[in-house]
Amino acid sequence: MRIRLRLFAALREQIGAEDQWLDLPDGVANLSDVRAFLRAQGGAWAEALDPKRAVRGAVNQRMAQDSDPVADGDEIAFFPPVTGG
Amino acid sequence: MHSSDSCAITVRIQQEAFDLGAETRLLRAMPSGEIDRRVGAVASFVGTVRDMNEGDAITTLTLEHYPGMTEASIRDIIVQATQRWPLFAATVIHRIGPMRPADEIVWVGVTSAHREAALSACAFIMDFLKSRAPFWKKEVHAQGERWVAARDSDEEALKRW
Predict the structure, then answer these.
(1) Cβ contact B80:B4 at 8 Å
(2) Rounded to the nearest 5°, which phi and psi values hold at B92?
(3) A57 at interface of B, judged by CB pairs closer than 8 A
(4) Which of A39, A64, B4, B158 could bridge A49 with an S-S bond, Cβ 3.0-4.6 Å?
(5) What would the pLDDT profile of B16-34 be if each residue is shown by its tens digit?
(6) Residue B32: strand, helix, or coil
(7) Where are the beta strands (DSSP E) in B16-134?
(8) Is A9 close to B94, i.e. CB distance below 8 A?
């Protein structure tokens, strides 16, 4: 499965990545699996996506929960809690 | 239950400053340009850049967003507002990029026949924008720069709706 990964704000800066296509291994089925897979890359990925950190996710530009499914071609985003307005 | 079909929805994300008077006149105008005489209440909110945050003087505040998702999520929030109150028009303008203290960041404008609907819808849209629309603030002060942390009170504010 191939997904487009977008990172924003502090996550983008900490990880040093912004927008890329990624191949995910079999068994990655939902948003929390994607986060766990990225965390397993180690280094800044592990730190920024640590389970203790408040991280929000979106699937195809809609706010998503950990259990929301991901599919081939999806746009997955991770970012800190929002602070607009 | 009201319908979003009859409400003119406008969402703009832009670098440039906006003119409050001009935006209010646009909000009250129908597509023909003529003023909408059904309107009896115009409610609006302006968010501005404070000069201090957590004890530090702010020199610059930079807003980042998620192009596409930000616009769609604000539109969704407005549509929810139109289902709760009878609105004629609702506009949200949110600036991105670098701003300075006293600059206007966000404007929410709503029209209705009566004030209660306009005031409530304006507050509802702003409350959900704060917690649901993907924007992030980074502030620069004398000691360096930092990303602004989300406030629990913003999430708490949604419970009244």
Answers:
(1) no
(2) -125, 125
(3) no
(4) A39
(5) 999 999 999 999 999 899 9
(6) coil
(7) 41-48, 52-53, 56-65, 87-95, 97-99, 104-112
(8) no
